[in-house]
Write a structure and sequence with these properties.
The protein has about 240 residues and is of the alpha/beta class. About 45% of the residues lie in helices and about 15% in strands. Helix 1 packs across helix 2. The structure holds S-adenosylmethionine.
């Protein structure tokens, strides 16, 4: 699990710096210097622990950021509130699940075209976030039945609020693994490489023949994409489109 690997990297970083500070106290002293070196050590330890590269800046900045916050002398309840809010947004991330990050409007535009080419009457967004895909598509295509599945409380609440005037958008606060895909023409997901093998099995098992599965950024292993759409948005997003056999 990524959270236990992250903790291990941080602790190893602290241990190494504590040992070095004991061995060469004239060089290694001062809270800021120690915090910066601990960040560097933790980032290096994260590599053999096989953490994804995006953990490197988190390790580098974790202890220095904690130190910086301490100097502000903020009340303790503010930390608790922040932790609570973050956990309501990034619900399963601590377990190593998919975090919240948003598709660009270019993704929505491309999906709009795909849905029209497919003459699709229904779309499911698996892990809908704050509805950045589901809401504009439901708005643009009133005849399209859209389902947005999201389990993180705050993103779900935002999508539910944004859908309040859209009778063709159903927002479900449940895990996407409980979503039945068989009734849908097009299924969209923007998740993570970790879940793609399991998702591929679900798509093969549940989606009806001839329907389309579109994955943003992460391909399905062992599947041949019918088309790959390269977008010119800031993330250079690729949409992998799979026809269900
Ligand atoms: C990368 S974001 C994509 C958001 C949106 N679909 C978009 O394209 O802008 C992934 C979302 O999936 C949600 N998610 C991750 N695992 C989930 C699960 N098992 N069930 C429901 N939602 C999940 C996360 O909370 C996050 O909001």
């Amino acid at each position: 699990m990524q959270s236990s690997k992250a903790l291990t990297a941080q602790l190893l970083g602290m241990l190494l710096i504590a040992i070095l500070a004991g061995a060469i106290p004239t060089v290694l002293h001062g809270a800021w210097r120690l915090a910066l070196l601990q960040g560097l050590a933790a980032a290096l330890f994260s590599r053999p622990l096989k953490q994804p590269a995006w953990w490197i800046p988190i390790h580098l900045l974790f202890l220095p950021a904690a130190l910086a916050l301490l100097t502000l002398e903020l009340p303790a309840w503010l930390y608790l509130l922040t932790a609570l809010l973050l956990s309501l947004v990034f619900w399963g991330t601590i377990k190593g699940d998919v975090p919240l990050f948003l598709s660009s409007p270019a993704v929505t535009d491309a999906l709009h075209q795909i849905l029209q080419q497919e003459h699709a009457s229904s779309l499911i967004d698996l892990g809908a976030g704050i509805g950045s895909v589901a809401v504009p598509l439901a708005r643009q295509q009133p005849n399209l039945q859209v389902e947005a599945w999201e389990y993180a409380p705050i993103p779900w609440l935002i999508t539910a609020w944004r859908s309040r005037k859209l009778s063709n958008l159903r927002v479900v606060r449940m895990s996407l693994w409980q979503c039945e895909l068989s009734h849908c023409d097009v299924v969209f997901a923007f998740l993570s490489p970790v879940v793609m093998p399991r998702l591929g099995e679900k798509v093969r098992r549940e989606m009806h023949s001839g329907s389309l599965f579109v994955s943003s950024s992460f391909p399905l292993p062992d599947w041949q994409a019918e088309t790959v759409i390269a977008l010119t948005d800031p993330m250079a997003t690729r949409l992998y489109c799979y026809r269900v056999p």
